[in-house]
Amino acid sequence: MSPADTNRKNTFTMKPTDPWKGIEAMTGIQYVTDEKGERVAVQLDLRIHADLWQEIEDVLVSESRRDEESIPLERVEAKRLQRGPLSMQLY
Predict the structure, then answer these.
(1) SS3 for 41?
(2) Which of 19, 34, 44, 87 sits 20 to 30 Å CA-CA off 8?
(3) DSSP H helical segments within the chain, as ranges?
(4) What is the mean predicted confidence (pLDDT) over 42-56?
(5) Separation CA 42–CA 53 (nearest Å)
(6) Residue 8 has pLDDT above 70, yes or no
């Protein structure tokens, strides 16, 4: 048996898996389907999945701000020091 044959013998092809498979067992999650039965939206019970929703929301906010100009920390700190003691003012 040549090394090429050994390599072929030890390789395998992964079959695509359904990312939704098994998810029905989770409680507090409901899917909205279209007329073809395709999942188009999800409803989360926030009493159960508040932490998950917070993570999703953080990612969405971060993505929405991707193209905004960033402000160097030094500039923010200098501006804060100019204002004096902490106050309810927003930057």
Answers:
(1) strand
(2) 19
(3) 3-10, 46-64, 73-83
(4) 93
(5) 11
(6) no
Q: Domain segments of the chain: what residues?
A: 23-83
Output phi, psi for 15, to 5 deg.
-85, 145
Q: Which residues pair with 30 in a beta bridge?
A: 43
Q: Which among 50, 54, 45, 53 is positioned nearest to 27, based on CA atoms?
A: 45
Buried-exposed string 48-68: b where 16+ CB fall within 10 A, e elsewhere: ebeeeeeeeeeeeeeeeeeee
Residue 57, SS3 per DSSP: helix
Other Cβ atoms closer than 10 A to 29:
15
The two structure tokens encoding residue 38: 């395709």
